[in-house]
What does this fold into?
Amino acid sequence: MKNFLVTISLMAAGVCAVAAKPNIPAPVKVPQMPHYRFENFTTANGLPDDHVYSVLVDGDRIWAGTDNGLAVYEDHKWKTYTTKDGLAHRAVLSLALDKNTGDVWAGTMGGLSRISGGHIDTFTQLNSGLSNNVVYGVSVSGDEVWVATAAGGCRYNVRTEQWDLYNERNTPMEEIWVYGVSATPTKVYYAVWGSGVLEYDQRTKAWDRYDDPDGETQLVLFKDQGLIHEITSSVSYVDNVLWVSTYMGDSRYDGRYWHNFLTIDSGLPSNFTNLVKGVDANHAWFCTDRGLAYYDGKDWAVYRPSLTNGRPEMIVRDAEGHVTNIPVTTAPAHNYILGIDFQGNDIWVATAKGLSHGILQR
Amino acid sequence: MRKASHSSIAAFGACILGVTSVAIVVVALWTAKPVAAVVTGRVGERLIYPSPLEMLQSADGKQLFVLCNESDEVRVLDATTGAAMKSIQVGHVPRGFSLSPDGSRLFVTNSWDDTLSVIDTASLQVIATWHVGAEPSSVLEDHARRYLFVANRISNDVAVLNPQTGAEIKRLSAGRGASYMALSPDGRKLFVTHVYPNPSAYPKQPASEITVIDTQRAAVVDRMQLHSIAGVFHLAISEDGRLGVAAELHPKNLVPLAHLEHGGAFEDTLMLFGADVGNQTVEVPLDELERYAARPFGVAITPDKSRLYVSNSGSEIVTVIDLPRLLRYIHLHRAPFVQDLSASSNYVITRIHVGHDPRGLLVTRDGSKVMVANRLEDTISVIDTRTNRLSSTIQLAGPAKLSVLRYGEQTFYTARYSFQGQIGCANCHIDSTFDGLEWDLEPDGFGRDIVDNRLIEDLKGTEPYKWNGGNPNLPTECGPRTEKYFWRSANYDDLTLADLVTYMLSLPPRPNRWKLPGYELTPAQARGKVIFERTVDNFGNPIPLQNRCSYCHSGPKGTDQKSFDVGTRKPTDDMSRFDTPQLTNIALTAPYLHDGSAATLEEIWTVFNPDDKHGRTNDLTKDELNDLIEYLRTR
It folds into this structure.
């Protein structure tokens, strides 16, 4: 009898347990996001400076724009170009590759340099038509080098050697502090700090401008109806889609619809984004002050040293907002991310304390 | 080696310049063996001479192609007999040519009309004419026939074309005045030289480069730096690919030219590179004391790598070098060699006198002969490589008479008038242009009164000459002044000087590449023209006459022929007023200002015009300054 009662009790408990099952959250299926093993470079292993503003992949060579020269990694060795080699300034803020010729363009705090065949030519506001020596951004399309400076945008035609300047006198630019540029054969976009995004149509030679529709500096009143904020920090135009980063969130524009990204409703680790780089129309990387974020069109992943204990972490957020910490053993050199470029499946990341090579694991 | 003595010229006759024929006897005694005694009249009419510049042998070796620089043609000769077979008209002022790898096509660069003529070598007809970059000077197709490379002198780049269609794929930046190219024997690398120095800080020794292009990627992979070099011409690569040789000028432009008697103007040198010299660059001199090898131009290495031939256009010789001895010498001795005027005796076998202005060299396929094109004599000298003596001379058909202009041009290009035959006009005025250098000319101490070299095109109406405006006319400029300060000898007779001046005044301006075909202005150029001609500044204030661009730079040549103080005097200058330079082709002639201290047109105003003395410009925005420069480039 006693055994019978125990059996009945267990069965009842089992029934209850089965009956209670719908109230337990179903296990979350964690999206498969890329895993990387990060190898980090600092002054300890050859970089001229830990502060890396920009990074550029050039085939097997990696260029790193640092606060103390332009470094190139080739055959497992670093070589550094300095002002003694003709570099315009020690601080290299931006880099661009002319895929046609193989020349590398470096925007610095003291002018624009072209590195070709190991030799450097420098263009400054005094010796050339460059509008200002502080070159935040550079991008190459065909024979034209598009430049973002502290005094407007420029276009330099390497064939005719003509400079065209773009500023408040000949474009809808209110501010002339231009932070980023993305040039393609069809469109050119400038990220203008405090003046939104400027678009140049290469065919019609007409300018257009995109602004934050609510005009608010602290609030987002009209979400997904335009640019998230006027203080833009970078632009990336790929597959006819514009990605824009600002210090108050990021945006994607497909020519018809805008989509805004904020920490409250996306996997962005911070609204303060230094740079965005689109992989294609649906995938992009966001370089924020709180880590590196990847967006695959639906889900997010963040790679960084933990903000609390510095341990490597990878955080995945799915489209429904489920957040999962993925155990990892490596992370980018620092969570203040300034730049990124792609080498096949790998990524190279510029941070405030070193350059990181993210080697894809799966 | 033959003992040399200095040159003398005797001229007799009388003429009315440019009109009447004269009898003149020119006896060149540069060496014990006279070069060529020319006994002819000089006529005033403008005659078109063939002016052979370069040569090629056809794939089967039976034909000799001769590029004729003045008559705008390629002449086809029988390679054995030298007999004329055909003339093929090409574009204007052809400067370089090459055969396709299979020899079926001959590519010709036409430097004044910016085109490339494609000749079918079977039919000897021009089958296509392609538009290329500014002043194309040489052309080469890679072995794989993927790319056709064209070196453009004015646009300072190498255009990469589709060799089948002529469509341009890309431009690669090269050195300033990109001109001559050579392929490595395996076809993987293309080496490019340039005739004007790259920009460098003022005042500084010039710098040049050999641009190295990976022909598979069509990308620049290296720029071999050539320190203190300005003016690099032909280069050659040995058949084993281990040695490269470039002909070049090593100017001593910051040493007073008055020191010519101390070897103070130019070194005539070769730059060696490649595995044979440890994959570095090694500069070796060609000059010997009292036997200068002025202006090396063409280089050719024999197939067995035993000999190197160099044409020296100013000295009118071909220098023959024993290559194994040269390599042994540089391995046994410590560089630098360039200042050592005894060095070349260790590897120069002989110096063979040829004709006026020897340029392109050709080693026949069997290595038995070397040919050199004597541009200003319309002849081809044939040298037997066994004996290193002239075996014959091929005379190209052309005017029998010697014109005033041709004699003046010969005078311009020869080095025979200067002390020890060191230099000629063309040393500093490369191909009758300029050299991109600033010079310390006067005997007033080192570093004083540095002056920029100016273009000599379209000179009529631009007198006086010199930056201080001290020479009222060209006979003064090119006569007593040149003899005293440059040649350090006095040996122009009046007629020779008159012919030289006539030649110089005949030099036309090169076509301006910044002008649109119909001479209309682009929007930026039009805005710049308004600024150039403005009378009121951006604040509405009237600009005083002498502060207007168009006041001093007036007239068709852009000069009022007067001197002004524009605030550019340096502590090393003895005066502050300088001649207003003409604006002809100003875009080509960097550096700028009387002393070449402005590296670019921009620097004239961004750096050297703080007080608005060189025109009212400090009110201009950067956009407006850019527009002004766009307009100036059209002048």
Remarks:
- Chain B touches chain A through 32 residues (CB under 8 Å).
- Residues 1-39 of chain B have pLDDT under 50 and may be disordered.
- Chain B has three domains: 1-39+461-511, 55-395, 523-632.
- The domain at 55-395 of chain B is CATH 2.130.10.10 (Methylamine Dehydrogenase; Chain H).
